[in-house]
């Protein structure tokens, strides 16, 4: 924050005697950009501190869902929470079925014990998410038949 305040003060000192609307827009733009960068940086530091507080994580993936165990925390999330999976070279990314994909779980492939486990993980994720797709489709069909409609949270995307 000290750097941010120093930058704003330097811009104000440099702008003394210059009365231009463009300079005001420039000051505002620089201020907004610096605030956005500072907020993202502070949020990342806060998340890192929280992860360190929880300690090392162990994640298990099975037919019932995803279990997470750390030194201070235990959590189990069922497959109904996730709607799709995206795979990259280094990670599997599970996203919630809402339009914005607000819930995210990143599973690094380096956590798998053997190279063939990647294929097993891919098959498990595909089967679990296809099952959830069937459940959501049945719910949507039942809601459409009763005239209730469907909510935005039931939007389903392919794996």
Structure description:
- With 159 residues, this protein is an alpha+beta fold.
- It has 3 helices and 6 strands; from the N terminus they run ααββββββα.
- The protein has helices at residues 2-14, 21-54, 116-146, and strands at residues 58-62, 65-69, 74-78, 84-87, 91-95, 104-108.
- A 3-stranded antiparallel β-sheet has the order 1-2-3, with helices on one face. Strands 4-5-6 form a 3-stranded antiparallel β-sheet, with helices on one face.
- Strand 5 (91-95) and strand 6 (104-108) form a beta hairpin.
- The radius of gyration is 24 Å and the shape is elongated.
- It starts with a helix and ends in a 13-residue tail after the last helix.
- The model is unreliable at 148-159 (pLDDT under 50).
């Amino acid at each position: 924050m000290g750097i941010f305040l120093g930058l704003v003060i330097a811009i104000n000192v440099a702008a003394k005697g210059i009365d231009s609307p463009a300079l005001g827009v420039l000051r505002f733009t620089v201020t907004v950009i610096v605030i956005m960068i500072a907020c993202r940086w502070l949020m990342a530091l806060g998340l890192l501190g929280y992860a360190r507080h929880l300690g090392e994580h162990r994640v298990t993936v099975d037919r019932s869902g995803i279990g997470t165990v750390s030194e201070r925390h235990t959590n189990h999330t069922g497959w109904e929470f996730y709607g799709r999976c995206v795979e990259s070279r280094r990670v599997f990314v599970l996203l919630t079925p809402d339009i914005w994909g607000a819930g995210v779980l990143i599973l690094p492939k380096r956590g798998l014990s053997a190279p063939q486990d990647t294929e097993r993980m891919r098959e498990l994720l595909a089967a679990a998410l296809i099952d959830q797709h069937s459940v959501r489709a049945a719910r949507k069909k039942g809601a459409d038949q009763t005239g209730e409609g469907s909510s935005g949270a039931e939007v389903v995307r392919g794996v």
